[in-house]
Amino acid sequence: MSLRRFSKQIEVGCDEAGRGSLSGPVVAAAVILPQDFINDELNDSKKLTHAKRDKLNNIILDEALACEVGIVKPKKIDEINILNASILAMHKALEKIDIDFNLILIDGPYFKSFKNKKHQCIIRGDSKFYAIAAASIIAKTYRDNLMKKIHDKFPEYMWCQNKGYPTKEHKRAIKKHGPSIHHRRSFKLIDKQMSLKI
Predict the structure, then answer these.
(1) Is there a contact between 144 and 18 (Cβ–Cβ < 8 Å)?
(2) CB 61 within 8 A of CB 67
(3) How confident is the model at residue 187 (pLDDT cuts 50, 70, 90)?
(4) Is 86 within the bounds of a domain?
(5) Quick count: other Cβ atoms within 10 Å of Cβ 194?
(6) Residues 87-99: pLDDT tens digits?
(7) Helix intervals (H) in the chain
């Protein structure tokens, strides 16, 4: 199924990256695309190769009417839980948008109202609508680059490869070296994170 606009309103797409990671921040992006924006390669960032994602990231940055990022660090994630941190990151990105918009499109089932703006939560929205797919690419690319930077100071965790996600190698490194300042202490760093309350 090809991507499309949700409506004829000025819509801003939001998505996050890093929710399932054991370390590093959660990063959200908010993107407003031109009404006539079309790109057949645009898709959910998780379905794209690294090279194609980088290419589309640059196209979005060049063509978007607005494109902002919000970041919530591990300490805050530990305080409010990852679901609320993801929503907070979206709010931070939206706060930076300087174009008046009518509708917020959210990837996934959860959101909290932002300044009384209308919003629509959409399951797998990043594979259905342009604005959300664009936000997913911006958020993931930004976060991947951030994880590569902090990898330089903590190479033992191999964040340049796993981006903080719970790979076997990452878990072995945590067992060997213990958690770093970038790990989420509220997460079960060896076992899978369980459900959260909003």
Answers:
(1) no
(2) yes
(3) confident
(4) yes
(5) 7
(6) 999 999 999 999 9
(7) 50-63, 74-80, 82-95, 130-151, 159-162, 168-177
Domain that holds residue 41: 11-144
| Residue for token pair 């903590």 | 154
190 domain residue, yes or no: no
Neighbouring-strand partners of residue 12: 104
Domain holding 133: CATH number?
3.30.420.10
- Tell me how many domains the chain contains: 1
Residue 64's contacts (CB-CB under 8 Å, 6 or more residues apart) are 31, 32, 33, 34, 134
Q: Which tokens sit at 150? A: 């902090």
Q: Is there a domain that residue 116 lies in?
A: yes
Residues 141-154: pLDDT tens digits?
999 999 999 999 99
Strand order in the sheet with 103-107: 66-72, 26-32, 11-17, 103-107, 118-122
In a domain, 170, yes or no: no
CA separation for the pair 37, 172 (Å, rounded)? 45
Query: What pLDDT is attached to residue 193?
Result: 44
Q: What percent of the chain has pLDDT over 70?
A: 95
